[in-house]
Specification:
Layout lengths: L1 E5 L1 E7 L5 E8 L3 E2 L1 H6 L6 E4 L4 E4 L2 H10 L1 H26 L3 H13 L4 E2 L5 E2 L6 H8 L3 H13 L3 E3 L5 E3 L1 H5 L2
Antiparallel strand pairs: 1-4, 1-6, 2-3, 2-5, 7-8, 8-10, 9-10
Length: 177
């Protein structure tokens, strides 16, 4: 298992058509590789650093020792697994929508609101910089479609892409879900 000390990673799989589907992005303080550590099977996804990343490696012996002896760690770890199952449910919901507009909006709602910070005008600022390709990879769309949806959402006043490349969701965004 790996614990991210600095940086961030993208967790994804390649589907049968060769398209990359991004499950999530993990940040400093988060972990990955726990499934293989627990069940002994091959990794279920590919993990790639997005920017310079430093990780700590936890081998299986140390993991099981800590899990059995530290109640706080065990509780936190189980809650983390539950959170990841919920995230998977949200991903399935997002990918089953046929409407590209809904897929992008659900991505912003379900994935990033967990990391939001409020703004004085009741807007929400999404604290992760994403390219249109990143959004496409997380919604199962192509980049050009995402670009068109972002233009529509911007033109309608639902979102703004700020100078720092973060998206800001305006109250109108939440009215039209």
């Amino acid at each position: 298992m790996y614990i991210i000390l600095k940086g961030s990673v993208k967790v994804y799989r390649i589907n049968s058509e060769g398209k990359r589907i991004v499950f999530t992005i993990r940040y400093a303080g988060d972990y990955f590789g726990e499934m293989s550590l627990i069940d002994g099977l091959s990794p279920s996804a590919i993990v790639q650093a997005i920017k310079k990343t430093t990780v700590a490696i936890i081998d299986d012996k140390l993991f099981w020792t800590i899990l059995h002896s530290d109640t706080v760690f065990r509780t936190s770890f189980i809650r983390g697994l539950c959170s990841r199952i919920r995230d998977t449910h949200e991903l399935v919901e997002r990918l089953t929508y046929n409407n590209a507009h809904h897929r992008v909006k659900l991505l912003f709602m379900n994935y990033f609101i967990k990391q939001n910070k409020g703004n004085d005008n009741n807007s929400i600022i999404l604290t992760t910089q994403l390219t249109h390709q990143d959004i496409a990879d997380m919604t199962g769309l192509i980049r050009e479609t995402v670009s068109n949806v972002i233009i529509e959402l911007t033109t309608s006043g639902e979102i703004t892409k700020r100078k720092d490349k973060l998206y800001e969701l305006h109250p109108l965004f939440f009215e039209n879900i």
